[in-house]
Predict the 3D structure of the following.
Amino acid sequence: MRIGILACSVFEPELEKVLQDIKIKQLFKDNIEVTYLHFGLHTNLDKLEKDVTASLDKLTLEYDQVIILYGSKCHYRFFEFLKKYNNIITIKPANCLEAIIGDKVVESYVEGKDIYLTSGWVEKFDELNEFSNSVDNYDRLNQFGMYENAIIGDTGVIKITDEMIFDLYEKIQVPVEVEPVDINIFENLIIDAIKKAINAPQKAK
């Protein structure tokens, strides 16, 4: 069985590690391949929808099942424009933060004091500027001022250095902390999605 994964590139650090571990453990015999889309697409919802659907038009023909690593908070019409595809697997978490870091993120929505970020956010932060104008970029950075702290969920897949922390602080002007995160949260999510893909009825494309 051929399984494709369509993912925002913000997942790349953790996803590559998880897929490597899955391969080493020989959990699945199926062929699994990943297609990444640019992180900056999140700042242009029209282009995000266009690129996701264009990719799925191709990938749903190439693979038996396609796992989609995007959530409902990535685009307000997310599930609406996915209706036409019958061989896709979606995930329950609403965005990359919930998928990788878990319940801490959901709980943080209630208090609204802290914003969690993943290692992919830290690595690819500047890509958010690529598909938006200078006014949008300024507004987005100002939105971080709503929070008391930015917390990097450290899964251990990359080394979070003092330089990276300071660089992020310079951009968002909010104190930056680092908290350890169990990568098994994300690994279990991916394993579950792969199992769903394998067990899904084979529908006509």
